[in-house]
Amino acid sequence: MEALNPENVLKFMGLVNNLKHSSRRGWSLINVENHEQIAGHMYAMGMMTFLIGDDSNLDRFKCLQLALVHDLAECIVGDITPHDNIPEDKKHALEDKAMKEITSHLGEDIGSMIYKLYKEYEAKQTPEAIFVKDLDRLDLLFTAVHYEKRDNTPKRMQEFFDNTEGKFKHPFIQKLVKALIEYRNSPQKVQETLANNSIIKE
After folding, report:
1. Where are the alpha helices (DSSP H) in the chain?
2. Which residues share a beta bridge with 37?
3. Over the chain, what is the mean pLDDT?
4. What is the pTM of this model?
5. Is 23 in a helix, a strand, or coil?
6. What does the alpha-carbon distance between residue 65 and residue 62 come to, in Å, rounded to a whole number?
7. 176: closest CA among 51, 79, 68?
């Protein structure tokens, strides 16, 4: 492995650190208070890669890597949402430029590896990239339900469910989404979960 310049590594760490303090703007735009930051979303996706069993055809480590880099460009460009009315090709160009800047601080070996992972996720062609996109959408829906229950605003986040309907590819993630929707539609289950001090409760 090539030697890394400490100053450049600190620059990279500074950029990554931005994600811990950068809002997931979709929640801001619909006035959800005390909502997650970008790094929290990426961490949740990373944790969900442990759902992959040892007997799976998916590469668990590759999925973890993809989850950790998929929104990395947002440390420079921010969380661009459809409400910003930025054409998709321009959005991708901005994010691609950001990723080249971010990875330039890490040398040829590591920088190229991270950039290739980002491009793999963006292409959505490999089984791992497709699975991680499922995790991206699953975390969105899970978080939406959390805010609905926390703020006592039933079905307020319906647009996210409408926009992702039919887009999940992996059978197990489809089952999780079905279970989440059933939970969302059952006030009794909500009360039981809150009473049992589950992860949904504040």
Report:
1. 6-18, 25-29, 38-48, 60-69, 74-77, 88-103, 107-123, 127-150, 158-164, 171-184, 187-195
2. 23
3. 92
4. 0.90
5. strand
6. 5
7. 51
